[in-house]
Specification:
12 strands, five-stranded mixed sheet, 298 residues, alpha/beta, 10 helices, 39% helix
Length: 298
Amino acid sequence: MSTPDLNLLVALDVLLVEGSVARAARRLRLSPSAMSRTLARLRETTGDPLLVRAGRGLVPTPRAIELRERVSQLVQDGEAVLRPARKLRLKQLVRTFTLRTSDGFVENFGPDLIARAGEEAPGVRLCFLQKPDKDSARLRDGIVDLETGVVGNTAAPELRVQALFRDRFIGVVRMGHPLGQGEITPARYAAGRHIYVSRQGFDKGPIDEALSSLGLERKVVTIVGGFSTALALARASDLIASVPERHTGNLRDGMHSFPLPIAAPEITISLLWHPRLDADPAHRWLRSLVRDVCAALR
């Protein structure tokens, strides 16, 4: 059996990314006819059409979709093997890292993270993006370097995941609120007027399930998309916000916090990144920095 031409991997990677013979040819600095011949060789080698005509464009076959992540990783691993090893010099590092973080992370951990990064690598800039959903496409596409949050079922299976810390939900009210005095029973908690946090607009969750098991139901009077918004409303009203404790430490200054009087499940906040950055020295330094800052703010 003849050894396959491994140069075809690079061509296949570009073709699957671009979805166009002409665009792939431009990226590889080939003529369209040369790129077409390469695609023909790939089809013969893999025994699959890989890209088929759909209207004026090309769409990947199921086999091509199956191969896309593996081929991309193989090409990146090959480039890493052939690239000279460089020692990381943090003081000379000039780079912008983009982090997509869960609600409250920047407000609570951002100041220390920015300060530590500034001390160790003055040329590094941190760009924080809001996380409106759990879609991991931005990590896969390289738009985002690092992400934090609760790992959901929609996370891509190839992502690297590392737990940062566990968090529990607590109740938060303004100073002077009636729940600031006396024992907070499940009935007292449920009898209040509540803010529910949901990015999808849902109005029930684990807290409501725990109350329901006790024959209780809370009255949700407003639904918001983030914990910082919920706390701002609670600070200026008699509404009750139920938020993660560690995620909202700085946001709760000047407010009264209390343990929930029910058995609400804890959540695990994790760090997520794409395997293409696993061995990158600068990225490894950033991951270590995030872990250290989160561990210090217990």
